[in-house]
Give the backbone structure.
Amino acid sequence: MKTILITGCSSGYGLETARHFHAQGWHVIASMRTPRADLLPNGERLRVLPLDVTRQESIAAAIAASGPIDVLVNNAGIGLFGAFEATPMSTVREVFETNTFGVMAMTQAVLPQFRARRSGVIVNVTSSATLAPMPLVATYTASKLAVEGFTASLALELASFDVSVKLVEPGYGPNTAFTRNSGTRLAGSIPEPYAAYASEILASFTHGPALVTTEGDVAEAVFRAATVPSAELRFPAGADALALARARPGVSPVA
């Protein structure tokens, strides 16, 4: 029985991914900053651990408590919507601490066991914002594009140890807690010169695009990335992400 450790399981993609792998018979270690028994009660093949990916001592404790794992899913992330001009650098650093450095720290923590066993899969969850430019998410996009570059390079670096590194790129999920929270992280962060433009963008988000991504789409994409033998690096998740990926020259995404 294989074991998976997933970060950011308190809601949305992480929560659904934990449930999906558990339903497939895996031993699931679901982590979140503050464990909630009502979401994922500890039970057969399921453990919930506290984990803050921005704190090294928390990472070390979670890795020690997890024991040997076969797959790491770096899903924990925070969103940010607003004009970059009005975004405090402290907030920029907060986003990078979770979305970028947290991914790197978790990856570094599991690599010794993966390399020694010459097996293991790391799945980094990014965003369709990396597939096409989107306005008013410059900081968020930068944090996720950094993970994409990191993942592509690391995949080459670890191939000789039979360790796989993959990307899952979710599209726009209007009904997730992540999306709801990202829009309010910087209340009042749209200065007057940007107000009219931002209103148009927010209205388009409210009405929603024709194609969207569900939590189940992401869970299934993570499962494929973790289990399907493939040289593919990128796994777009959701109809909108797939459409964006197919529009990129030289990209043949795994659906």
Remarks:
- Helices lie at 12-23, 56-66, 89-117, 138-158, 177-182, 195-207, 215-227, 239-246.
- Residues 183-188 have pLDDT under 50 and may be disordered.
